[in-house]
UniProtKB/TrEMBL annotation, chains A, B:
<protein>
    <recommendedName>
        <fullName>Probable nitronate monooxygenase</fullName>
    </recommendedName>
</protein>
<comment type="similarity">
    <text>Belongs to the nitronate monooxygenase family. NMO class I subfamily.</text>
</comment>
<keyword id="KW-0560">Oxidoreductase</keyword>
<dbReference type="GO" id="GO:0009636">
    <property type="term" value="P:response to toxic substance"/>
</dbReference>
<keyword id="KW-0285">Flavoprotein</keyword>
<dbReference type="GO" id="GO:0000166">
    <property type="term" value="F:nucleotide binding"/>
</dbReference>
<dbReference type="InterPro" id="IPR004136">
    <property type="entry name" value="NMO"/>
</dbReference>
<keyword id="KW-0216">Detoxification</keyword>
<dbReference type="Pfam" id="PF03060">
    <property type="entry name" value="NMO"/>
</dbReference>
<keyword id="KW-0503">Monooxygenase</keyword>
<keyword id="KW-0288">FMN</keyword>
<comment type="function">
    <text>Nitronate monooxygenase that uses molecular oxygen to catalyze the oxidative denitrification of alkyl nitronates. Acts on propionate 3-nitronate (P3N), the presumed physiological substrate. Probably functions in the detoxification of P3N, a metabolic poison produced by plants and fungi as a defense mechanism.</text>
</comment>
<dbReference type="InterPro" id="IPR013785">
    <property type="entry name" value="Aldolase_TIM"/>
</dbReference>
<keyword id="KW-0547">Nucleotide-binding</keyword>
<dbReference type="GO" id="GO:0018580">
    <property type="term" value="F:nitronate monooxygenase activity"/>
</dbReference>
Amino acid sequence: MLTNKVTDLLNIKYPIIQAPMAGGVTTSELVAAVSNHGALGMIGAGYLTADQMREQIREIKKVTSKSFGVNLFVPTKFTVSFDAIKSSNETLQSIRDELNLPPRDQVVLPSYIEAMASFEEQIQVILDERIAICSYTFGLPSNEIIGQLKEHSIIQIGTATTVQEALEAEKRGMDLVVIQGIEAGGHRGNFINEFEESQIGLMSLIPQVVDVVSIPVIAAGGIMDGRGLLASLCLGAKCVQMGTAFLTCVESGAPDIHKEAILHATEDQTVLTRSFSGKWARGVKNKFIDETQPHQLSFPDFPIQNTLTQDIRKVSGSQKNLAFMSLWSGQSPRLAKSQTVETLIQTVMAEVSNLKQNL
Amino acid sequence: MLTNKVTDLLNIKYPIIQAPMAGGVTTSELVAAVSNHGALGMIGAGYLTADQMREQIREIKKVTSKSFGVNLFVPTKFTVSFDAIKSSNETLQSIRDELNLPPRDQVVLPSYIEAMASFEEQIQVILDERIAICSYTFGLPSNEIIGQLKEHSIIQIGTATTVQEALEAEKRGMDLVVIQGIEAGGHRGNFINEFEESQIGLMSLIPQVVDVVSIPVIAAGGIMDGRGLLASLCLGAKCVQMGTAFLTCVESGAPDIHKEAILHATEDQTVLTRSFSGKWARGVKNKFIDETQPHQLSFPDFPIQNTLTQDIRKVSGSQKNLAFMSLWSGQSPRLAKSQTVETLIQTVMAEVSNLKQNL
């Protein structure tokens, strides 16, 4: 079960994918270390321009000959509500004051058309650089794009939070699907189901998906060690995707205070919020979440809210002030360790061997 | 791993406990069938009087010589808010009209003191009838009661939703602890952590609890088959507690329309609500939940809200009208089957054997 069609397909030794965490976590060092040690490294390219993506891909190619993947955010339609923007700006004002940030009178908001154009530039880089594996979050691209990547034999991976979304990924031609349990850190990947309908624990989600979907399933959410890996395989997944476990590794680009926040957090301290970006995401509770929580349902959609909070997150980070940063984490922070990628992967696989013998 | 200290302690062949579902589900036929087929049957005695409990215990003793357990609701302090009662009655009025039920001008509300007296009567029955295993939901009883049961060598099981609650169960002398993941159907068992902090998926919760707590852990929530059982053991649990899987068995006392609702539900259709009872609980979405959802935070605490909705649930059930019944279910309804207890238990154990060989 440990080496299977999926490890063959992804050309990896172990059924482990490093989750493509966007926003600077997936440094070239991290991605290369993961791929060099037998798992699949992934660039979280959601917030990168095509040029930044190309640059990082070339950098990684210099330090590993192993395959690695790239994850893209599929642009989603969103509503520009001036009331929502006003509500957000009003709520954020006291935080801006505290950080000595000017009020947000003018802001350049992204448009869906611009986002689509950027996405197509990113796709072109995937094709030009002959990337072996491309995964998608927040939905699936057009049939045309999916077909283009298929022609180039690029393996495509969808992200789903429910059976219905996994079925859609299969129907639209994905080779594999990541199913994201409610345990997962960072952004929720639901794209058909509403947020309320897509909060399903992996213990329930994995078997219900694999019973219905024919493509191989990758389990994601709260998996940190050999116990989580073997449990996911028992439930029917063929591979796992681990985020938080890699985020606290020394090679990850997450700020040290973000890593420390996870290393000191407990399982009851992560929370789902839409205050940072306009999409629901899980992170360690802090002052920003507490203060914005009562108003979060009135904030604008992603990526508008993300733009409105950008300077707050940036300044808070540069001041090494946890209070207003997005401290993404899954529900298993007690299992996080500060270690190298090599140690993490080797420990996970040793745990799996031990566990199997004692079952 | 399959027979272990816990199966020895509970005197069962298989590491499976039938969840003590209150409200008529755990018929004597169900409990006896479970115990007779190698797992642990449990009476959900939360809503039973001491006399009803004694009667059922004696009935079960006639049809099984195997050990079985009883679960009690530990009375919790609650606030009587007239505003909350008014809000609830106003919201429920349109439902009462639809069911031709009279308005609720007067209602006999339970008091904490009465609930405590009833609880102590229940404990006396446990002692008198020499019940082998007693589990608690919604908290833990007094040290005096715990000590009394210990003197009689009764095995006591706490219910926890977080590491902190599991530690408290251990500290207070529980022999084992059920940890309830967010996947679980019916009432949430949180008693120290707030609802918002205690929504943790089993993939995260089991390993984080077993790393810290010394007493054996029983996993509960969304576990329906051999995959879930073996996955729970991989994560560090010693035993599982299954609710929904037993609820749809032919021996269970759940109304047929409740069973059918689960058998036709999908994983994205269960939801957490406090509208039925004043405590958060998971069930299949229906008209009652939809209509009360916007107001649920203003409803009174358990058990007041439970009393206020009692006639609605009863009449809805007797009219075989799903719309206003509490259709408790975990997050894995796609895995539910209409079958006998014997078939369920044998299938689960056969699946475990097969899975172990293919790992």
